[in-house]
Design goal:
The complex is a heterodimer of chains A (204) and B (77). With 204 residues, chain A is mostly helical. Chain A is built from 9 helices and no strands. The chains are: A mainly alpha (204), B mainly alpha (77).
C-alpha cells in the first residue's frame, strides 16, 4: 500500500516539480539499477533504467497506490528490462563463481559428525557501524560484492540493502522461491567469509 | 538433532523465516546447545546489518536527470 509520504511525493511529481524528481531519483535509482542488472547485466542496466524512468513519467497519472511507489517503480523497471532483452540466462541461473575469501564450505565441518572443524572466528566489532569504520573492510566488501554472479549480487542487494521480501524478488526477476533462497544463501556465506577473513587477519 | 553443518545450511532460511514450524524448532534447539552456531547466526545478522548501512554510490547526474524528467512531465509527454 502506498504510504502517506508516497502520496505527497506523487502530487509534487504530477505537478512536474523538479525537486520531487530529484528525491525520486536519489531514493530509488539504486534499487531500480539492481533489478535491471539482474535481468540484463552490467552492459545494458543503465539504458534500461533510463527507459524505465521515461515510462515512469509517462504513467505517473495512472499510479493508483495499490502497491508502494517502490514496488511500482521496480515493476516498471523489470518490465522495461524484460521487454528489451530476451532472457537467455536460464542455464547460468545458479552459476557460482569463486569469491576472494571463499565461503563457509564443507571443509569447515568434520566429515564424520558435521560439527565445526574450524569454528567461526569471533569478530572484534559487534555493531555494523563499528565494522564499517574500517575503510579497508568497506573496500573489501565491495570487492566481494563485485565478484558475485549477476543474480547472486542482485538478489543480495535487493534483499539486504533494499529490504525487499523474497516473494517480491521472485516476481520481479521471474525466479522461483527456491532459486532465490539458494542465490541469497550462497551470496551471504561469501560475504560472511570476507568479513571473517578481515576480522581474523586485519587485511583484505 | 541437527548437525552444525545442517544448521549453517538452513541459516538463511532461518533468518528469512522460510522454515516450517518444525524445522524452526530444530534450529532453535540446536542453537540452544551450540555456542559456535549461536556465534555464527549472530555474526550473520551483523553482516546483514552491515550490508544494509553501507553507503550507496551517489547517483550520477541526479540533477540533470531530475530536470529532464520534470520537464518531460510538464510537457505531458
Amino acid at each position: 500500500m502506498a504510504a502517506a509520504d508516497d502520496t505527497h511525493l506523487l502530487e509534487r511529481l504530477l505537478k512536474g516539480e523538479q525537486r520531487a524528481y530529484k528525491e525520486l531519483v536519489t531514493t530509488y535509482q539504486s534499487a531500480m539499477r539492481a533489478v535491471a542488472y539482474a535481468i540484463v547485466g552490467q552492459r545494458h542496466a543503465d539504458e534500461v533504467v533510463q527507459d524505465a524512468w521515461l515510462s515512469v513519467v509517462r504513467s505517473l497519472a495512472r499510479f493508483e497506490g495499490r502497491s508502494s511507489l517502490k514496488t511500482w517503480l521496480l515493476t516498471i523497471t523489470a518490465n522495461a528490462a524484460k521487454g528489451r532483452y530476451k532472457q537467455n540466462r536460464r542455464e547460468v541461473l545458479l552459476d557460482d563463481l569463486p569469491s576472494p575469501h571463499g565461503t563457509i564450505g564443507d571443509e569447515r565441518f568434520t566429515p564424520d559428525d558435521g560439527h565445526w572443524a574450524v569454528a567461526p572466528y569471533a569478530w572484534h566489532q559487534d555493531t555494523p557501524e563499528a565494522l564499517l569504520t574500517e575503510e579497508e573492510l568497506r573496500d573489501c566488501l565491495e570487492h566481494t560484492l563485485l565478484s558475485l554472479s549477476q543474480l547472486q549480487s542482485s538478489v543480495l542487494v535487493l534483499r539486504e540493502r533494499q529490504g525487499l521480501e523474497l516473494e517480491e524478488i521472485c516476481n520481479l526477476l521471474t525466479l522461483s522461491l527456491s532459486n532465490v533462497r539458494v542465490l541469497l544463501h550462497r551470496a551471504r556465506l561469501k560475504v560472511f567469509a570476507t568479513v571473517e577473513h578481515f576480522e581474523e587477519t586485519g587485511e583484505c | 538433532m541437527l548437525t552444525c553443518k545442517e544448521q549453517v545450511a538452513r541459516s538463511s532460511d532461518y533468518l528469512d523465516a522460510q522454515l516450517t514450524f518444525r524445522e524452526r524448532l530444530l534450529v532453535r534447539h540446536h542453537l540452544m546447545f551450540c555456542p559456535n552456531c549461536r556465534r555464527f547466526i549472530r555474526q550473520m545478522r551483523l553482516m546483514q546489518a552491515t550490508l544494509r548501512i553501507m553507503p550507496d554510490e551517489p547517483v550520477q547526474d541526479a540533477d540533470a536527470l531530475a530536470e529532464r524528467l520534470a520537464a518531460q512531465r510538464r510537457k505531458g509527454v
